[in-house]
């Protein structure tokens, strides 16, 4: 694998694509002592090369890497991209063992006699890594020339012209390295946007691809251009909501797939549960596609990317079942791919999200969700404040006096106590005793519309932002401090929220939330629910469950800190590295809160033994504790 130093060397040049291409190609050829005499594309990449820069680069490769093979070329092509494209093109280097597996699994569905005439496509091909792997595999199986394979079997599309150029360079190098130094190769590699590209207009008598493979671009909805958002509305799976860019690539790939064809993707695994993939789940279920998912859970596949992935194979033939297996990256590398669990589509809830697991687990989850009242229906669950500039608004005082908190931020700032509120970050919190030491102050430039409001009448608790003159006059120190950060505050949300005053929070959520509560984090390795009766304690980076009864909240705390609840979370929630799991509202709201009489509530509150409380709850939910051991 290419070292970080080598990648950094190229990244300093990444905005000059011509120089980067010349450096990678020239160094690869020189390092491996490959001579090119005929191919015009590769000759253009080495013409006029800076010998000194190439020599420096090769020495770095020899020192750090010791080799410079094709995977290194692919890695450098896929990671040395212009800085402007880093957050919007979704490109990421796919490990070789993943590409090999997907290519072999899809090609094995094709009869050897049909291989010379098949059409294989990557509709977001980037620099051609998957197509390179396909070309190698077809070559090995048929012994046909790369010239013919490129011309007749390989098709690629990408939105960036420079990535298509790199794909052509990569495939040309593959052929040349294997003795085919043709003057020109005929490629079916096209520049276009997959969201509105029509393959029927590009290929004569097109009847569909035999195989569609790849790694669809993963770009979050918030980073999509307005043009892209408009194009997403043309696809059934992304007509509504705020979908990420990878989602329509399933529908696009299947549209251009032959009825007998197969699709193979490495992609994020969040489509099973995420709200923005509801339409995609419904699309799979309605069409009864033969869907096979190899889920890596929290295992990290992509280097330097906190992305949770799965391999998906889809055939257009009808099936009543989804085939599913959860596997670690280590087991996958060791080829420990066991039998897949088969789950009937009828058992999968499109709206709530798919829970893909063994039948006994699904039965337990159904028991838990069917009992009593769902948590989200019985108790208000609310997110914390979102200032979009926590480093400006939130601080830990280094000192205080009767009228002021003192905030050390480069220099010492004096902030009026009258504009500050107590605030806490549940993501750090594990016990009630930690609240006094973890509590911070937040500059809160709002007043309550109705000062006599009941704490639990949320409408009456509405907070209104100060008028700027009032703020400046009554809290001059806090105003001056925020004014010193005005540029940063104006740039929140890329300056989109022009309707709000510059000193307001970036979102209005949680401004009106008051009352007794259980505080809990976004994610955790075990359940932490911390009770506080400080009605006006605000929160950020976490959640709170509100209720006006201390007793009811403390009973709830006992239930949510149980082994039963954590079993439910581990089987239904989003996993993270380090054996952490998401505790977002969407993952906890359907947990059933069983009906308890007063004696049972007393038992939970008064019994100190966690094991005894766990046993009580297992019986209450009619679940065998031995059956859920993992």
From TrEMBL:
Domain Type II methyltransferase M.TaqI-like, first and last residues per copy: 152-302
Transmembrane domains' residue ranges: none
Keyword annotations from UniProtKB, A to Z: DNA-binding, Methyltransferase, Restriction system, S-adenosyl-L-methionine, Transferase
Record keyword Methyltransferase present: yes
Catalytic reactions of this protein: a 2'-deoxyadenosine in DNA + S-adenosyl-L-methionine = an N(6)-methyl-2'-deoxyadenosine in DNA + S-adenosyl-L-homocysteine + H(+)
UniProt-listed InterPro entries: DNA_methylase_N6_adenine_CS, MethylTrfase_TaqI-like_dom, N4_N6_ade-DNA_methylase, SAM-dependent_MTases_sf
Biological process according to GO: DNA restriction-modification system; methylation
GO MF term set: DNA binding; site-specific DNA-methyltransferase (adenine-specific) activity
The EC number(s) this enzyme carries: 2.1.1.72
Name used for this protein in its record: site-specific DNA-methyltransferase (adenine-specific)
A Pfam family recorded for this sequence: Eco57I
PANTHER family listed in its UniProt record: DNA METHYLTRANSFERASE YEEA-RELATED, TYPE II METHYLTRANSFERASE M.HINDII
